[in-house]
Design goal:
Blueprint (H helix, E strand, L loop, with lengths): L4 E6 L6 E9 L2 H4 L9 E9 L6 H9 L45
Antiparallel strand pairs: 1-2, 2-3
Length: 109
């Protein structure tokens, strides 16, 4: 009688990402030379990601191309800005700072 146990859990509903746990007898013929009468058990935990491809070229393109994340349908919120003229309260639209006054060449200062 063995006590092997394995459980799988689908993280994604389509089965592309799965978590797996196992509790199995260790292979005694290669790893355990001292005490071959009593079985030793090993625990295992893993994540499995599975994707199907139609051909080998599609597989290679998927490995070597970068995917850009795009948020479709989500508009960014406007960034509130504070200015000395608004008294420290956020303004809905950015306020341009006043331009420095140019001196005339006629002034003797």
């Amino acid at each position: 009688m063995t006590k092997d146990f394995e459980a799988s859990y689908f993280i994604r509903a389509d089965g592309s990402l799965t978590a797996r746990y196992s509790y199995r007898v260790l292979n005694t013929t290669t790893l355990n030379y001292i005490d071959q009468l009593s079985p030793q058990y090993v625990n295992g935990l893993g994540l499995i990601y599975q994707t199907d491809f139609n051909n080998f070229g599609e597989f290679i393109r998927n490995i070597f191309t970068r995917r850009r994340r795009t948020n479709v349908g989500v508009a960014p919120l406007p960034t509130p800005t504070t200015t000395p003229l608004s008294g420290g309260t956020p303004a809905a639209t950015p306020v341009t700072p006043p331009q420095p006054i140019k001196k005339n060449e006629d002034d003797d200062n």
